[in-house]
Amino acid sequence: MARIVSARVIVTCPGRNFVTLKIETSDGVAGIGDATLNGRELAVAAYLREHVIPLLIGRDAHRIEDVWNYLYKGAYWRRGPVTMSAIAAVDMALWDIKGKIAGLPLYQLLGGACREGCMVYGHANGKDIEETIDNALHYQEQGYKAIRLQSGVPGLAATYGVSKDKYFYEPADAALPTESLWSTEKYLRSVPPLFEKAREALGWDVHLLHDIHHRCTPIEAGRLGKDLEQYRPFWLEDATPAENQSAFRLIRQHTTAPLAVGEVFNTIWDAKQLIEEQLIDYIRMTVVHGGGITHLRRVASLAEIYQIRTGCHGATDLSPICMAAALHFGLAVPNFGIQEYMRHTAETDAVFPHAYSFAEGMMHPGEAPGLGVELDEELAAKHEYKPAYLPVARLEDGTMFSW
Ligand code: KDG
Ligand code: MG
Predict the structure, then answer these.
(1) What's the rounded Cα separation, in Å, for the pair 402 and 400?
(2) Which ligand is nearest to the CA of 315?
(3) Which residues of the chain have pLDDT under 70?
(4) What are 5-31's pLDDT values in tens digits?
(5) Is 68:91 a contact under the CB 8 Å cutoff?
(6) 141 vs 137: CA distance, rounded Å
(7) From 127, 165, 217, 279, which residue has the greatest number of CB atoms within 10 Å?
(8) Which bin fits 262, alpha (ψ -120 to 50), beta or left (φ > 0)?
(9) How far apart are CA 134 and CA 204, in angstroms?
(10) Could you confirm whether 76 is annotated as catalytic?
(11) pTM recorded for the entire structure
């Protein structure tokens, strides 16, 4: 038995905030898990410290499934991003420990590689179409096979997905939420010309993606899908808020553009109807916000029988630990689709040295036992937590809107 003897939460801010759970066993093996929830980091840290860690001490680190069920069912209060991120962190750390004890990279424990690597997509953005396409050409030169396109909208001062720094995207940009104005009409006019120009400049051999970021109603999303179909998008992401899963039926009635959704989902229940009615093509849940490897495997298995593939969230607000977990999962899951890859800064990478790598548009988790990521605690301690919030959006008349 590998008894859990200690567990600690480490909060660090190497350019942005990350929460890590570190679990140690009686044989001196340590595993780490990502618990970062952008803009709500300390809620997860407190949940872990106050309500999860005391329950872990003395348990057998090998009994991953049992620990998962203990934390999920045993809390009585189920689901939600705070709870599920905390459970995910425990789950990742335990899989890391199991891999280290076995001397095998995690993907081997998940059934072994189903492919040579995970295709990833990079983020091209710019203040206008020209700048976005210049940026996309840069990604294409670096070997990316898939690129997400987000451009500033004429007439709007700022929009999601368009960063100040062309190559590093950091949406949580202020100590209190900044506010931006939104117009769906202006936005809907701006996307088809972006895709038209992108196909002219980049050709047809590269996959093009776009994130609507919950900004459309179903009928608006249907119209946008129709307009973009001719440019063969790989996917349209988060077309409409998905609390009402049946809303996606309306989008499906109007467009054959593939749909991706789920970066804000936490459990299989958030996606059940979307999957069972085949209302989507890609499920975007990832390890940290989706209850860990143990739960994400169940989501992917349900999705597989409906020909839905994975497309895990991979923004910079998920730590390199989550990125590694997602790559092991992506390599081993039969219905992998694509993995989002927003590179972390050198400052972040220095705190989380890792075995995963990128080459020719593909990523591989590496062969190090477990997750293949370490946390440099000494360096982490030098970067103190800084409150940072995601922006909020209002319509031009002042009505609060989805960010
Ligand atoms: O924390 C929010 C970001 O992760 C999100 O805005 C990024 O939509 C996003 C994406 O697709 O990466
Ligand atoms: Mg998104």
Answers:
(1) 7
(2) 1
(3) 166
(4) 999 999 999 999 999 999 999 999 999
(5) yes
(6) 6
(7) 279
(8) left
(9) 16
(10) no
(11) 0.97
